[in-house]
Every structure is written in structure tokens, then in C-alpha cells.
Design goal:
By secondary structure, this protein is α/β, with parallel strands linked by helices. Helices cover 36% and strands 12% of the residues. The longest helix is centred in the N-terminal third of the chain and has 20 residues, at 9-28. It starts with 8 loop residues before the first helix and ends with a helix.
């Protein structure tokens, strides 16, 4: 009797197995929360940033530190008047726009009483214990106007997702150990914190400020959470308000720039 050739069974099943495997991978793979920021170009790439363009990692961070460390420093008292210009409400020149709450409030209501706005240190000044002395404590790139009580709610908490609403929150949330700003300024907050981490590297008498993934940094010169800040940078790209603010600080006050507003993709290139 002739022998009938039998096709190996695994040849027929393998495509099906591969298809099932692909479905399982698709079902179990974590969803991406944001795509990396696309490369941008600015008018400053051939001048201000010429020694940084094309670099990545520690080399990029070091080059940017050298570039942005050349700045004019202002006093803490001078910050009051500067914020009235940098954070002017584009819809009402008599007001400033508050960072976390989004409220438009009269420029004249700066102070420390209920209903006033004061000077919020986005990189909490206790994280590195630099206070309000001229330097990181007066750097306009991370100082923003905010309602006195909202500022108190934020305190010196690290940034993270989650929490509950509060009075005048504007959509911002807080819990026992972290603060989540409203969606419209999540990227602003991330880029301000990471600016500070590049600008202050411990070489000019101030602490070496660095981001990490903790929400319990206390007085250590660290700020978290880096993984969340990176997501926020992607989810909320620079808008006209943030770009104008960067330009005003550069041309009128400190004469240095926040590189992550000009090149948000450099966040991923460094971290």
C-alpha cells in the first residue's frame, strides 16, 4: 500500500498561534499616554542655542546649563512688578492670570491677605532650602502669581496625578503628599521644574536641583515626579501665553530663556 505523505500539523497552526499571540499582546500592552514631542526649530537655534542643537543626554543638559546660566538676577521685591508684566491677562491688561486656579485678578491685589495673589515658587523653595534669596528663589522662570489660599494648599508638595478639588482650584487637585495642576498648565509646570533642574547644577553656590520620581522629597534638592512631569510636557505643549512669558523674561528681565518652552522635545532628549 502506498504511503500517503502527511503535512506536519504545526505548519497549519502556526499562523493561528501567531495571530492569537498578537491579540494577547495588544490587549495587555500598556497604552501610551502621550507621544514624544516632535522636533521644533526656533529663531534662536543658530544664535542662543547654537552650542546645544544636535546634542542629547548629559551633553545637552550641560550645554543648556552653560547657556541659561548667563542671566540678570532680580530681587525678590522686584518679582512683584515683574509678574504683573510676565503674567498679564491677555484679555484684561489690568489683571494677572493666576497659575493653578486660572483666575484673572487685579494686579493691585498682590500681598498676603485672603483675596490677594502672591508669588508661588513652582519648584518649592524648601526643596533645596534656597528660600527667597536672589538666585533660584527669585528666578522668574518658575515664579508665578497665585491666590494666597491656593498657594497655601499647594505648599511644598511634589507634583503627581490625583487628589481632590478645593476652593478656587480651577480644576487643580491635591492629596496628602502631591499636587496636580489644572490641565491647561500641566506642561507649564513640568517645563518650569525641569528648567530649574538644568539651570541650577550646584556650580554657583546653590544646590544641585534634580527631578526624581518621589513625592516625599521634603527639603532635599529634588522634585517629583519626573515620570509624570514628562507626560505633562507631552500632553500640554507650550501655548501663546507661555511663549510670550518666556520672551518677556528674556528681553526685559533676566535675559535667559526656558529651553523647554522653545524645544519641548529636549525633555525626552535629556531624561
Amino acid at each position: 500500500m502506498p504511503v500517503t505523505a502527511v503535512r506536519p500539523r504545526h505548519h497549519r497552526l502556526r499562523p493561528l498561534a501567531l495571530a492569537v499571540s498578537a491579540v494577547l499582546v495588544a490587549l495587555t500592552a500598556p497604552a501610551l499616554t502621550a507621544a514624544p514631542a516632535g522636533a521644533t526649530t526656533t529663531d534662536y537655534d543658530t544664535t542662543y542655542y547654537k552650542n546645544a542643537v544636535g546634542k542629547t543626554g548629559a551633553s545637552l543638559k550641560s550645554s543648556l546649563n552653560t547657556i541659561i546660566s548667563s542671566q540678570t538676577k532680580i530681587s525678590y521685591s522686584a518679582v512683584w512688578e515683574a509678574l504683573k508684566v510676565t503674567d498679564q491677562d491677555p484679555n484684561n491688561s489690568a489683571n494677572v492670570r493666576l497659575l493653578y486656579s486660572g483666575i484673572s485678578r487685579s494686579k493691585s491685589l498682590n500681598g498676603g491677605d485672603v483675596g490677594d495673589w502672591n508669588r508661588e515658587h513652582v519648584w518649592a523653595k524648601s526643596h533645596g532650602d534656597f528660600g527667597t534669596a536672589t538666585g533660584p528663589g527669585t528666578d522668574l522662570h518658575h515664579l508665578r502669581p497665585e491666590d494666597v489660599q491656593v498657594n497655601s494648599v499647594r505648599g511644598n508638595k511634589d507634583f503627581d496625578n490625583g487628589g481632590s478639588s478645593f476652593t478656587n482650584s480651577g480644576g487643580s487637585l491635591t492629596d496628602a503628599n502631591s499636587f496636580e495642576p489644572r490641565d491647561a498648565v500641566k506642561g507649564d509646570v513640568a517645563r518650569m521644574v525641569l528648567y530649574m533642574a538644568v539651570r541650577y547644577e550646584g556650580t554657583d553656590g546653590w544646590p544641585d536641583l534634580e527631578p526624581n520620581d518621589s513625592t516625599s522629597n521634603g527639603t532635599s534638592p529634588y522634585h517629583g515626579r519626573l515620570s509624570v512631569l514628562k507626560q505633562w510636557n507631552e500632553q500640554d505643549p507650550p501655548d501663546a501665553f507661555e511663549e510670550r512669558r518666556n520672551e518677556v523674561i528674556y528681553t526685559t528681565y533676566q535675559h535667559n530663556r526656558n529651553p523647554f518652552i522653545d524645544h519641548p522635545e529636549w525633555v525626552e532628549a535629556i531624561w
